[in-house]
Each structure stands twice: as C-alpha cells, then as structure tokens.
C-alpha cells in the first residue's frame, strides 16, 4: 500500500463513516476497485486505524455532551444554574447493548458476509428503509422528541434494536439504520442523527478495539507512518463532514442519501461485479 492509496482510503472512511451511506460498504467496494484482497491483514488493520481516527473526530464534536453524560465539565448558565441534561448513560446503554451483544455472539457469521455482492444489496435495502422512515416520520408518526434530550428510554432501545440490522448486514449503514429507527419511533431527524453520532463513539470504540487485538502486530516501524497519515486524514475529513452534515441537515434529506445508494449499487452491479 503506497501513501496515495492510504490517503484515498482514509478520505473514503472519513466521508462515509457517519453519514447514512455505509462506510463498511464503501471500504469493501473501494478496496475491490484498488485491487486489495478482503482477507489482507494489513488492509484490515489499516481500516481499523482510520476508523479510530473518525471516532476521535466525533468525540471532539460531541466532547461537551460526553462530559455532561459523565457528570463533569458542565458549565452554569448566566443565572448560575447548572443545566440538567435529560439524556443519560442509560439511554446510551440501551442504544448500544443490543448491537454489541449480537456482534459478540455472531462475530464469525458476520465476517462471512463481508463481500461486494452483500454490500450492493444492503445499499438498496438500506435506501428503501430510509425512504420509508422519512415518509412515515413526516405523515404518520407523532414527533415526541424534537431534541436529543427529549428521547425516551423506549425510543433509545428502539434505535438500538434497529442498529442490529447494520451489524448483521454489512453495507446497510449503522447511521442509516439508527437514524431511520429513530424517525420511525417518533424522534425528529436532527435528534435521531445526534443520538446516532453519540452512540457511535462507544460502540465503534468497542468494535474497533476488539478487532485491533487480533491485528495490532501489523503496526510496525515500517508501516507506522502510513497508519499515522491515515489516522490524521480520516480524523480531519470525518470532523468536517459531521459539522457540515449537522449544519445542512434540514436541506439534506434521507431520500437524497437513498438515491445515492441506489446509484452506487447500480454502478458496481453493472461495471464491477460483472
């Protein structure tokens, strides 16, 4: 792997990790385009490292919220009153435990599903769910959580259960499933995205850390610079993408991402897999 290839993969990871287009799917498909084997140990380790860079970016974006959840770093308002967040660690646990449990017990089965063809179908299925979620959220569901602090325990659990789909089906998109699950459960688009990004930190740290235990030996003196470049590039790109996404969230609908997923799936089906 040369530096240019490493940077390309890091950019793809940073762009796709937190928006509902499936970073796993893009990494599998990009690796296929670049001619890398899906079983290459160096590639696996590199993907984990650049994913950690993306995780750090989201942790920086939500640093104050994380401190609030831990009960530290909370600043007083102008009246001297300590603001109280209704979102707590129980919400986070409800949002991550179902997916972590499934990932732990079905790890080998999930790994067997990592292929370009699986991803193509997941892109389509995930896009359909996102269109349905947006339609139902606008017309059929009463929005009870406009902001992340309004999310109930039941809604947090529902989001956590929807997240299982992305665990079992590579390419479905973790953020796509959780944002859609939130919207189908009466959570606004923005609050669903906020909660999706927040719970990504612990669940991705757990998943990436566990995988790194198997492949950390690939990080050597010869590969360290390449891994470091990828980490930094992924961090910067992910930070910018998340900030832009949250800024323009009212203009960028789930349907727009769904259409992109359909186009990407069609491209790879027609030109790569045949």
- Separation, N- and C-terminal Cα atoms: 26 Å
* Overall strand count: 0
Count of structural domains:
1
Biggest sheet, open or closed, and with what strands and sense? none
Overall shape: globular
Helix content: over 70%
Outline the low-pLDDT stretches.
Answer: none
Content of β-strand: under 5%
Helix/sheet category: mainly alpha
Whole-number average pLDDT?
Answer: 87
Radius of gyration: 19 Å
- What are the secondary-structure elements, in order, as H or E? HHHHHHHHHHHH
List the total number of helices: 12
Explain briefly what this protein structure is.
The chain is mostly helical. The chain has helices spanning 3-16, 23-34, 41-61, 63-69, 89-105, 107-112, 116-139, 153-168, 174-184, 189-215, 224-247, 254-271.
Summary tags:
mainly alpha, single chain
Overview of the molecule:
By secondary structure, the protein is mainly alpha-helical. The mean pLDDT is 87. Helix 1 (3-16) packs across helix 3 (41-61), helix 7 packs parallel to helix 9 and helix 9 (174-184) packs antiparallel against helix 10. The two termini are 26 Å apart. The chain is globular. It has one domain. 72% of the residues lie in helices and 0% in strands.
């Amino acid at each position: 792997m040369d530096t240019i290839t490493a940077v390309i993969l890091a950019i793809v990871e940073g762009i796709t990790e937190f928006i509902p287009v499936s970073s796993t799917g893009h990494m599998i498909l990009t690796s296929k385009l670049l001619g890398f084997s899906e079983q290459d140990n160096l590639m696996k380790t590199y993907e984990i490292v650049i994913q950690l860079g993306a995780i750090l970016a989201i942790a920086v974006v939500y640093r104050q919220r994380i401190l609030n959840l831990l009960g530290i770093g909370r600043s007083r308002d102008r009246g001297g009153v300590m603001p109280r967040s209704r979102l707590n660690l129980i919400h986070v646990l409800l949002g991550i435990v179902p997916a972590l449990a499934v990932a732990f017990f079905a790890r080998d089965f999930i790994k067997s599903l990592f292929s370009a063809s699986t991803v193509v179908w997941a892109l389509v299925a995930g896009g359909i769910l996102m269109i349905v979620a947006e339609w139902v959220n606008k017309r059929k569901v009463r929005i009870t959580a406009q902001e992340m602090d309004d999310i109930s325990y039941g809604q947090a659990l529902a989001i956590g259960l929807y997240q299982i789909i992305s665990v079992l089906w590579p390419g479905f998109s973790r953020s796509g499933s959780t944002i859609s699950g939130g919207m189908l459960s009466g959570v606004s688009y923005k609050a669903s995205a906020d909660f999706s990004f927040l719970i990504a930190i612990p669940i991705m740290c757990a998943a990436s850390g566990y995988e790194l235990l198997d492949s950390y030996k690939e990080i050597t003196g010869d590969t360290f610079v390449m891994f470091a470049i990828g980490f930094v590039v992924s961090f910067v790109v992910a930070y910018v993408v998340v900030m832009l996404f949250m800024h323009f969230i009212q203009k960028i609908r789930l349907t727009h991402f769904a259409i992109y997923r359909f186009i990407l799936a069609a491209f790879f089906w027609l030109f790569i897999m045949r």
